């Protein structure tokens, strides 16, 4: 019996999600290991994606096909978030001196959808499409602090340790999220990578939950606690400005943006 269409589509997305900028070419064995799907299922999905031009075979490995680029332009032009955010991201980069970006949530992860790289020599280099965990890093903390479903999803996925500073206990996570809610922005130190710090604030949607998170990232010798206290309100104000431009901030709050 054929699998329901939605289930097949979901598994095809699971396969495509395995490819990243760091690993643009993967073998069938790699795809099986990353998805946990049976060999026959992976083979069937890969065959279909090849036929549709969504995958390209190169020897014994595969890469994402250029057909996906056809979808990128309408995706960007159709997104009010991306249409609005770019100048604010660049302005935040210029004001703080650090790499700035916008993340959206995808289940227990966050995805970088807009970025502007710092002009310093030593910088954080994120890239559009980068997938990162929710629990490690300031942007993820913003989603969890203001959206109970994001917190529940992250907890269900598990609090994996990346460094000695990664928060892996519920009590400490709850303490940090309470602090984020109190001041309206988050600061994290070396949670995902040693020496990399970040500051972020939520971009509220119509229902008050974060539609996105605006963040800056930089080396710990520049973006330390004192600097975070200085730029945190700037990041939060810029995030509110994005929300206001999208019409998500109530009129009485827009005067503060």
From TrEMBL:
Keyword Disulfide bond assigned to the entry: answer is: no
State what protein this is by name. IclR family transcriptional regulator
Q: Does the keyword Transcription regulation apply?
A: yes
- Xref: Pfam families: HTH_IclR, IclR_C
At the highest ranks, the source species' classification is:
Bacteria, Bacillati, Actinomycetota, Actinomycetes, Pseudonocardiales
The HTH iclR-type domain, residue ranges: 6-66
Q: Which superkingdom, per the lineage? A: Bacteria
In this chain the IclR-ED domain maps to 67-248
Q: Which UniProt keywords apply?
A: DNA-binding, Transcription, Transcription regulation
Q: Which residues cross the membrane?
A: none
């Amino acid at each position: 019996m054929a699998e329901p269409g939605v289930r097949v589509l979901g598994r095809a997305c699971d396969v495509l999600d395995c490819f990243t900028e760091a690993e643009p070419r993967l073998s069938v064995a790699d795809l099986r290991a990353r998805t946990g799907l049976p060999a026959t299922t992976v083979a069937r999905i890969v065959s279909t994606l090849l036929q549709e031009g969504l995958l390209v075979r190169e020897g014994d490995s595969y890469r994402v096909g250029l057909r996906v680029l056809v979808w990128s332009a309408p995706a960007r032009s159709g997104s009010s978030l991306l249409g609005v955010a770019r100048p604010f991201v660049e302005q935040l980069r210029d004001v703080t001196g650090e790499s700035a970006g916008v993340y959206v949530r995808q289940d227990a992860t966050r995805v970088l959808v807009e970025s502007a790289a710092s002009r310093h020599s030593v910088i954080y280099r994120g890239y559009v499409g980068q997938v990162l965990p929710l629990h490690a890093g300031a942007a993820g903390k913003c989603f969890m602090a203001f959206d109970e479903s994001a917190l529940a999803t992250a907890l269900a996925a598990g609090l994996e340790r990346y460094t000695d500073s990664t928060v892996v206990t519920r009590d400490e996570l709850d303490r940090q999220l309470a602090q984020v809610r109190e001041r309206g922005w988050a600061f994290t130190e070396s949670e995902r990578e040693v020496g990399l710090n970040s500051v972020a604030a939520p971009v509220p949607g119509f229902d008050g939950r974060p539609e996105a998170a605006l963040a800056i990232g930089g080396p710990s010798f520049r973006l330390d606690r004192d600097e975070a206290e200085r730029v945190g309100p700037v990041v939060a104000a810029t995030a509110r400005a994005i929300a206001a431009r999208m019409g998500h901030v109530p009129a009485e709050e827009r005067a503060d943006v």
